[in-house]
Specification:
This protein is of the alpha/beta class and 277 residues long. The protein contains 11 helices and 10 strands. 38% of the residues are buried.
């Protein structure tokens, strides 16, 4: 029976490579990697002289089974972090299990765990969202799920899309929802920003943020009815002042109401105003 070993690699700081990970790479018949040029530098640094085979998201479907059959003790590394999390490692594991391989995952570096722990947000329950869909219905549904979740949510994002994603999260979750943004984890310029989604979107939306980014979003309020009551008073007041439709919803959202709650309360306030007229 063959064996597949998932070997975590540093997300930035080379000192995060474990002794066990280095031993597993040296003991393997071959090392499969997302980017062989990138991984060769890592292997050379730690004195690992093993055959290197490329298996990335574009090739793993066609070549994965053949590589597993060729090398009975195969180690797999990704560009950074623990294989299988937001990368093609999960597909390789499925192929290995189909071939009745033993699969071992070594503990090691990953970006979302430290970002989550230092966020300062509730950690009793959390969900990992990975990268959000780029656009369309799938993206809207995931954003809404984060907005309504009573668990903390953690997701990855690219620096160039950070501002857009923070702004969209502020719209659906409410501008006051607490969150954090961590960048360059484990590296020299590691930074974590904390605050409301609105403040983070304003602070980071126009700046050119460098390095991989992890966003952590706090859970929805525990007592939504109490939250709704506060915004309901505002909605009635704004409706009496003449605001309606999109203008009323936007005004409530600017006060921090989640988009779905702003929509609901705007309808209620307009109906009440019509009854009073």
């Amino acid at each position: 029976m063959g064996k597949l070993v998932l070997v975590p690699t540093p997300i930035g700081n080379l000192q995060d490579m474990t002794f066990r990970a280095i031993e597993a790479l040296k003991a393997a018949d071959a090392v499969a990697a997302e980017d062989t040029r990138h991984s060769r530098k890592l292997l050379d640094h730690f004195g690992v002289d093993r055959p290197l085979v490329r298996l990335d998201a574009h090739t793993i479907g066609d070549r994965g089974r053949r590589v597993l059959e060729q090398y009975q003790n195969l180690a797999f590394v990704t560009d950074a972090g623990t294989p299988g999390i937001s990368d093609p490692g999960a597909e390789l594991v499925s192929l290995a299990l189909e071939l009745d391989f033993e699969v071992e995952a070594l503990p090691g570096a990953t970006a979302f765990v430290p970002a989550l722990v230092i966020s300062g947000l509730p950690l009793a329950r959390f969900t990992f969202e990975g990268f959000l869909p780029r656009k369309g219905r799938a993206r809207r549904e995931r954003l809404q799920a984060i907005a309504s979740s009573n668990a903390t949510s953690v997701l990855y994002e690219s620096p160039r899309r950070l501002g857009t994603t923070l702004s969209e999260l502020a719209k659906v979750c409410g501008e006051a929802r607490q969150a954090s943004v961590s960048r360059e984890l484990s590296k020299r310029f590691e930074t974590t920003y904390r605050g409301s989604l609105a403040s983070l979107a304003q602070r980071l939306g126009s700046d050119e943020v460098k390095g991989e980014v992890v966003i952590v979003v706090g859970p929805a309020p525990e007592h939504p009815e109490e939250q709704a009551g506060d915004y309901r008073v505002e909605a009635r007041s704004l409706a009496r002042e003449g605001l309606s439709g999109k203008d009323l919803r936007r005004a409530l959202a600017a006060l921090g109401a989640p988009r779905n709650l702003a929509y609901q309360l705007a309808l209620e306030a307009e109906a009440e105003r019509r009854e009073e007229a």
